[in-house]
Amino acid sequence: MNKLYREKHSNTLLAESEAVESSPEETESSSAVTPSLIGFPNTLIVIPAFNEEKNIGRVLEGIRRCAPEIPVLVVNDGSRDATARVSREHGAKVISLPFNSGYGVTLQTGFIFALKNGYTTVLQMDADGQHDPRYIVDMLQEIQHEYLDVVIGSRFLENTEYKTTFLKRMGMFIFGNLASIFCGQKVSDPTSGFQALKGKAIQFVAGEYYPPDYPDADFIIMLHRYGFKTREIPVTMLPSPDNKSMHTGHKTVYYVFKMFLSIVVTLLRQKPKG
Amino acid sequence: MPPRIRIIAILICIFLVAYVFELVRRKHLNEEYSMGWLVTGSLMLILSISEDLLIWVSDLVGATLFTSTLFFSGMVFLMIICLHFSIRISALTNQVRTLTQHLGILDYEKKTLENVVAKHSLDKNPSALDTL
After folding, report:
1. Could you say which of B94, B105, B120 has the minimum Cβ distance to residue A109?
2. Are residues A256 and A135 in the same domain?
3. Contact residues, chain B, for A75 at CB < 8 Å
4. At what angle do helices A136-143 and A53-66 cross, to 10 degrees?
5. DSSP assignment letter at A76
6. B119 CB near a chain A CB, below 8 Å?
7. A256 confidence band (pLDDT: 50, 70, 90)
């Protein structure tokens, strides 16, 4: 029984389309959600999560407080803990990958889902609680501008309180500058996972050229090469509770190598037409 | 080339080619992957058997020892095979990635549908609750 009703309020597209021709109480339950959707229609928040049972609940509550009408999709990257259950209990849609596949693959799954289900705007944020949900509305308002395809929440545009290790700062500095040079516009935070994308940009992320391991400066350069218009807006980051990084140990070496290679081949690829 | 190394090389090549054939016959090895090994084995066999060809190739690559020519060509073939494997592994990785993603999405859709169906049958027939 519990399982049966767990997703009753998860506001799936399916339930919405069902509601048109179904029983009165079902129409009621979905119409309770619909009016406030007018602000940001067809918008989906995608959160890739790996072993985040401690943080995901707080993140989802934050989103519910700041943007209660927007459906949230948690893509569970083969977590070994209760991430999926906690997310479901907080009313999110949950897609679970059968095994751990990495950040990029997980994120891309959310975009494929969005594309399949007719969402036209996607906001991606991290599951560790670093991204302040108060900026969701700012980001979504910014992306409404017709000429913009991607909005990136940058930690470094206004305040530089964000503390990190020397190596990480170095990496961000180098790749940020490289991205700035190749994009012809300032890229202050290429590693930010707080982004809003719309229209064709969603198709691009769901497509084959999206870097599957950790989309970073190379992704920003790629976006620019493919003619997408990006803009950064300032956001403040909350301190991450367990401060785990995606790049540690030998992975740092691979990360630097991969980023350089990826940027070079991106630039070597023929500029797509149209 | 000393006859002993020549005989060993010929035997190894014959064994390799025969073994690859056997693997394909038993369906333990796909035809696609057998090709690299068969070409390598056959060319090495020809090089080991024909002294003239070996001398000619050695002159061509500037090897002073005929055995080095054999080693050298063996290594080149292996490099090509390895590169081919890397390409195939990349393709397979991409396919697995796509499968993983679609499997996750399909599983979600299946569960959602199940819930909808279960809810509908429950609405129509409340006694179905007992069977759940």
Report:
1. B105
2. yes
3. 104
4. 60
5. E
6. yes
7. confident
